[in-house]
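In the laboratory, one determines a bound structure by crystallizing the protein with its ligand and collecting diffraction data. In a computational setting the workflow is compressed into a single prediction: the sequence and the ligand go in, and a structural description comes out. We illustrate the idea with heme-as.
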Amino acid sequence: MTTITETLPAAHEPLYRGGVWSWITTVDHKRIGVLYGVTAFLFFLVGGLEALLMRIQLGSPENTFLDPVTYNELFTMHGTTMIFLAIMPLGAAAFNFMVPLQIGARDVAFPRLNAFSYWVFLFGALFLNASFLVKALGSANAVPDAGWFGYANLTSRQYSPGHGIDFWLFGLQILGIASLAAGFNFLVTILNLRAPGMSLMRMPVFTWMTMVVSTLIVLAFPVITVALFLLMFDRFFGTNFYIPAHGGDPILWQHLFWIFGHPEVYILILPAMGIVSEVIPTFSRKPLFGYAVVVYSGILIGVLGYGVWAHHMFSTGMGPIADAVFSVTTMLIAIPTGVKIFNWLATMWGGSIRFTTAMCFAIGFIAMFTMGGISGIMHSSPPADLQQTDTYFVVAHLHYVLFGGSILGLFAGFYYWWPKVTGRLLSERLGKLHFWTTMIAFNLTFFPQHFLGLNGMPRRIYTYSADLNFGFWNLVSTIGALMLGASVLIFMVNAILSLRRGAIAGDNPWDAATLEWSTSSPPPHYNFAVIPRVTSRLPLWDRHHPERMVDRPEDELKVVVAGKTLARTEVPDDDGESGTHHVPHMPNPSKYPVIAALGLTIAPIGVMLKPEHGIPVFLAVTLTGVLIMAYGIYSWALEPLEDH
Ligand code: HAS
Ligand code: CU
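The predicted complex, in structure-token form:
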């Protein structure tokens, strides 16, 4: 049996070679991207398993496969897992691996902060899921069960006495720190490390969407951090922010949560929109139609996303003025989103399309996401929403945008970039099989939920009586969900076979235009031996397909050497300035990010122990965590980044 390392060219070996310690201490953005991707995929499987258990329970009326308590735990953990442990970190995997390559950089701006972000994410994810272990050890109410949006005052000590909500609240705090670290890192990276000639309006759209998402993270996560701190004080230190009996206000939680929560849904969709904006031009053999408009509408979605949060709260009785305002702002979002849809369609129009698996997923994304978007617009009308809210209609909406949108987009990215990451091609036949089974199973699972919702089936019920006639469509939905599980297995088989004996990909198997395809697959540690000099949005087509690049005044960059203006195909890569003709310096590995992340995760355990074990135990454990974290951060600050 051949292994990858034997058959890949020698220059590529070092990237993934090395023992466990080399992975724990790595600060290479590509390895961190792989770690993010693998971890997030494992949690995607966990979240999927939780979903299947729920679907089996709902497959027939008055089923007793699950008890109501377990059911509540499963929908809470399923939503939390898919959003925070699967889709967001799958996006982070793509940011990590691709953004430095796309902008012609050697790494992110803060490589050790990047490693810290991954380890905090992993520990936060394990922390959240440790609740299952604590339950297995016999503790009651140990698993979070108040829904992914944790409405007050279901989360108060009075109504949630066990550790379940604690796991949820501290888990999200830890994960939020990981997201913030990544958000700042990518903003600085994109603003500062672009190759010479790459102006903002020459960046690939995926990099642009990374920048928008990072901005959303940096502005939205502090709000949920505050909300969770108030909840922590309510649960542990006797305050009453959300407790109406003592003058608090549970609606305050809803406002804080959704001011974060709505931007969060755009954090989940914009990376996928970035991916399709790369895949569609490549496989249509045409530059993206209306690049600038796609970028601006992405920014506009990000901005408008802050003005719509209360559309999740129409049923709280905010009054006609607030209802009207939030309804209109919500409807406005259809405009920039629709603009993007039409730009993607216009890119395909008249192109010579190659229906690769990546392209199929991108087209599937457009179709399914549009359906989800349109049911979103239906919720934006308060009287309609009063009928739809808390029913399966909303469940159908959120899955059309999150699975039909985010996940299909991420799959498109997976098939597109896998050869760059591994150096090998996936099987197109298995890929197509994966695509079609996914599309059929997805629609079988979620389309009927529109009918169930409109017929009045509430969300978050563990069973229903037979005379409500919900049985048939629920059964269809369950069959679809099981098929969807099977389709993921096809995908996994494809990935494993490719790693073992996939065809060698070469640098640019798709004949794509952006810089990540100009280096080897997988890239060397330092990405580029010589930093490229960029003369247009589509640097590789510039050189190899000038015919695709006609009529693009925005791409003019004059490079004059020895008094002679060079044609695009003659522009040399960067030299001199960045002194890149010798082997570049790369940051050293470091063990301190993982140590700091560990301390950060230990600290909240002390707080959780306070109610049963008193203040000394609380202080001892929390301070231990804080000290470990401080040790990690100080040592990391004092450790030299590179050898000289
Ligand atoms: Fe949403 C609930 C409204 C996009 C995710 N959304 C959720 C929940 C999630 C979620 C997870 O207004 C449930 C949260 C929970 O647990 O309770 N959503 C919208 C609107 C959009 C939208 C207007 N959602 C997303 C995206 C998500 C996401 C993206 C994640 C990836 N959503 C809502 C509302 C609720 C809601 C209410 C609360 C419901 C309730 O009661 O709980 C927009 O961004 C969608 C824009 C996209 C399109 C399609 C393409 C546009 C074209 C242009 C022409 C179309 C026009 C519209 C002019 C619109 C092609 C014509 C209108 C017709 C009706 C035909
Ligand atoms: Cu929303």
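Residues 101 and 516 are 5 Å apart (CA to CA). Keep in mind that any predicted model is a hypothesis to be tested, not a measurement.
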